[in-house]
Amino acid sequence: MSEYRLYKVLDPVTLVEGVARVVIVTSDREVRAVYQIMEFRGFEKLAIGRKMEELPRIMSAICGVCSWSHHLVSGKAVDVVFGRRPTPRSTLVRKLVNYIQVLDSHLLHFALIGLPDVTLWGETQRDISKLLAKNPELVEAALKTRSLLKVLEKKLVGKIQHGGFVVPGGVTRGFNRDEIAEAEKILGEISDLTIKLHEFFKDRVVYSGLLRKLAERGEFDLKAYNLGLVSGGDLELYDGALRLIDSRGRIVAEIADNSKYSDLIGEATVPWNYATLPYYKQAGFKLFSEESTILVGPLARINVSSRVRGEKASLEYGELLEYAGGKPISNLLYAHWARLVEIIHCIEMMREIMDKSELYEGELVNTKGSPVEKGVGVLEAPRGILIHDYTGDGELIATSARVITPTTINNMAINTNLTKVSGRLVEEIRSKGEPSRETIAIMESMIRAYDPCNSCATHVLRINGHAQPVSFTLMVVSEEGEVLWRG
Questions:
Q1: What is the pTM of this model?
Q2: Cα separation of 214 and 231, whole Å?
Q3: What is the mean predicted confidence (pLDDT) over 117-144?
Q4: What single DSSP character describes residue 41?
Q5: Which helix H or strand E contains 374, and what residues bound it?
Q6: How do beta strands 225-231 and 294-295 pair?
Q7: What pLDDT was estimated at residue 467?
Q8: Complete domains list, the chain, with CATH
Q9: How far apart, in whole angstroms, are the C-alpha atoms of residue 234 and residue 282?
């Protein structure tokens, strides 16, 4: 009989949303890293029995970081159930809000987590306070973008988080020209501050050779399937076709009808995680294997897109591809640069929408339609593909809900990447009594590159009929039952 040992490595993982930890499981046959999400939300169950039109407001409370993404994608699913196609004006309003959400989240991660994590590589402390000590003007600019974006969100949609402006077939309010003129001024300030972050990243990370040096490490590579939305091949964040490419960049599938997402994505459950483990259905479920792993998020979107709209974003996209040696880009550390491309893209697309006369003209709600039983909403949240799948009865009351978040889809990828370095980590523990600082830094950087939103991912209540515990206790026990270590 094999003796399994557990090594608590990162407990908790820091600088991520929600609570998670890494546990290394070893036996005489294998070594694996387990990314264990420790929270539970259960919104799939909470949605049952609710009126369909209430779900966009309820589902926005899944997360405080990407609440607008859940609000918008829930609204898209409810549109389908009510049989109401949103009006052109309301669609532009929704797209504008989605760009704000992605820009807000990306700037938060890029400036306050990504830059410290990469630029302070090799140092014991890699966080915003250390970056502040070394580059106070840069951190001041990053924090200023955060405050400006919150002003912009409140001014346009009335609330910073957990809003309720999406209704079946449209939105509750539009924007007038005075509001947009003021928003354009705020966006101009954000754009100027973003240039400072952009220049710092290019000078310190790209042109210095640091990114290339780190990217040469094989542990950060993930040769997986990439999934994202495209519109005519272009990068798309709100409404497009689901495109899946393989690790060689070949298009495996492109689905215009988002309700067919289950043709691509399967979900497996395991007893050690509240989140499911989605995988590419045609490849079958293979735990900790790149063969069935799907990657979503900024890097995946860059990989599946043929073009990125926006003059400056397109140039940055081209420079990224040239630097990385073409697509698909398999090294996770390039996700930071991919976020920068999308930051620039969001600013340019917001300006484009603000210039459209359709943003101010026409109806805000389409009240005509024939209800159906099932509705699926799909959009690109900051961290990747987000899916809400609802079923209702004849009274438009929800009878089932399925929520698949980007972090859920990336769950397999995170576990697979961590396993690549787990063998070396265990050897260090066995020989020196603890892992090296460098190995821990690699694992931390792997996780943070995904920018996981752990709270969003936790909706599984029961596994094989057994209720999940509300907390975990970690012990290393010998075959004789002796407790060797307790965490």
A1: 0.91
A2: 33
A3: 89
A4: -
A5: strand 374-381
A6: parallel
A7: 41
A8: 5-41+421-486 (no CATH), 43-409 (1.10.645.10)
A9: 26
